[in-house]
Amino acid sequence: MLDHPPIKPEPDEDLSRFQLPDPDWKYVNLRRYLVELERSIDEGTQWVVFESNGPSLWARVRNTVTDFLTNEWQTGKLLGTTADEAFFVRCDQTTMTQNDIDNGRLICVIGIAPIKPAEFVIFRIGQWTADHKP
Predict the structure, then answer these.
(1) By three-state DSSP, how is residue 103 classified?
(2) Shortest CA distance to 47 belongs to which of 102, 106, 123, 99?
(3) Amino acid 51: pLDDT
(4) CATH number of the domain within which 41 lies
(5) N or C: which terminal CB in the chain sees fewer CB atoms within 10 Å?
(6) Containing domain of residue 67, as a range?
(7) Which DSSP category does 111 fall into?
(8) Cα–Cα distance for residue pair 67/78, rounded to 1 Å
(9) How many structural domains is the chain composed of?
(10) 10 assigned to some structural domain
(11) What are the pLDDT digits (tens) for 47-81?
(12) Is residue 66 within 8 Å of 84, Cβ to Cβ?
């Protein structure tokens, strides 16, 4: 016997709030969405490997990720009446140590509100820049 419900729900069930008996399976859809967001942002920022790690790069990364998440919010995938309630993007000296910067590590901290406005799920994306010293 399976210890989780079938993957295919009944036709009249609301998929966005599909109730699962095991709490470990409660947020499977959310986890899948987060994995997809992380992958998309990681792939969409691969260009940083050709750039020097500094304030102008950080601003470009923030703009790139903000544009992507704004689209996610506008299509209803993130909750909030404003973009500020739906997500935030930080990529600056508060997200990286001087050691990170000197060694070409760019770190972006991202918060999204997929369930409730202004209740953020936070994750980090890291990339190597042209300043990377292996």
Answers:
(1) coil
(2) 106
(3) 92
(4) 3.30.360.90
(5) N
(6) 25-128
(7) E
(8) 13
(9) 1
(10) no
(11) 999 999 999 999 999 999 999 999 999 999 999 99
(12) no
